[in-house]
Design brief:
By secondary structure, the chain is mainly beta. Helix content is 3%, strand content 44%. It comes from Culter alburnus.
Length: 270
């Protein structure tokens, strides 16, 4: 009888897609406040940044592979407090009630990708040699919050007393076959942005707001094991189109100030 020899299988194409370098960070700088307007308080947070160098092996067939970033929002607590009058909040209704665990943070055009410039790179086969590519992305918040209650008028007195915001995101580095939709998870990153701003509406404009702890954000975490991407992170709507601005007065019923841009399959919170 002949001896039985073990056969070593050749790695598949997607197993040879290699992450050569990965960087993920949040700028070590505090949130910046802008009180130049007598209507709104503006603030700008530090940037989350991610960059990766990836090597795609030679492609023997006429295939198209895209490497890029996909991001989802897992938590959004965004409260603007107006003393004893009430609270306004940007909300994602289905995320808030636990119906979904994540929502797409795509640019709203190039689903499921976060963006279509530096955020993604497409390799068209056949190719005779490996392709080295770099994809990068960044994200931060630059909102405007009214000094007066959001259901008031421009002549209403400034009552904004604090801003509290806590958001969590998952960001995936992904390679996808454009023909078959086969998706290869290369890396998974989790990051968080926390903002606390104390406001004294009785002080003169330009002296009202103070950024509180944490002044410096905690750094992103690159997971040892990749997490699967929830379906909602790949499809419409994205967070910007699904969010609702609510006014919840201390006395009285909640009011929808700004409804979601995306209505299909969505509901307004009560």
């Amino acid at each position: 009888m002949g001896c039985v020899q073990s056969v070593k299988l050749k790695p598949s194409f997607h197993e040879n897609i290699t992450v050569l370098e990965l960087q993920a960070s949040i700028d070590p700088s505090p949130t910046v406040i802008d009180e130049s307007s007598n209507v709104v308080l503006r603030y700008r947070t530090p940037y989350f940044r991610a960059s990766a160098q990836v090597q795609v092996p030679p492609m023997l067939c006429k295939e198209i592979w895209t490497v890029g970033w996909i991001q989802a929002c897992n938590q959004m607590d965004f409260f603007n407090i107006y003393g004893n009058e009430g609270v306004s909040s940007w909300e994602l209704p289905e995320l808030r009630c636990g119906q979904i665990q994540a929502i797409s943070d795509s640019d709203g055009v190039n689903y499921p990708w976060y963006g279509c410039t530096t955020e993604m790179y497409t390799v068209v086969g056949p190719t005779k040699k490996s392709t080295k590519l770099t994809v990068s992305m960044n994200d931060n918040f630059c909102p405007s919050v009214t000094w007066s209650v959001p259901v008031g008028t421009t002549s209403s007195p400034p009552l904004l007393s604090s801003i509290q915001r806590d958001q969590r995101f998952t960001t995936w580095l992904v390679a996808m076959n454009e023909s078959t939709a086969e998706m290869v998870l290369l890396r998974t990153i989790r990051w968080r942005m926390q903002i606390c701003i104390k406001v004294d509406p009785n002080k003169p404009l330009g002296q009202r707001a103070t950024v509180m702890e944490p002044l410096i954000q905690e750094q992103p975490q690159v997971l040892v094991r990749n997490e699967p991407i929830p379906t909602n992170a790949l499809l419409k709507p994205n967070a910007n189109d699904a969010q609702v601005l609510m006014w919840r007065p201390r006395n009285g019923e909640p009011i929808v100030v700004i409804p979601p841009k995306y209505h299909e399959g969505y509901f307004l919170p009560s």
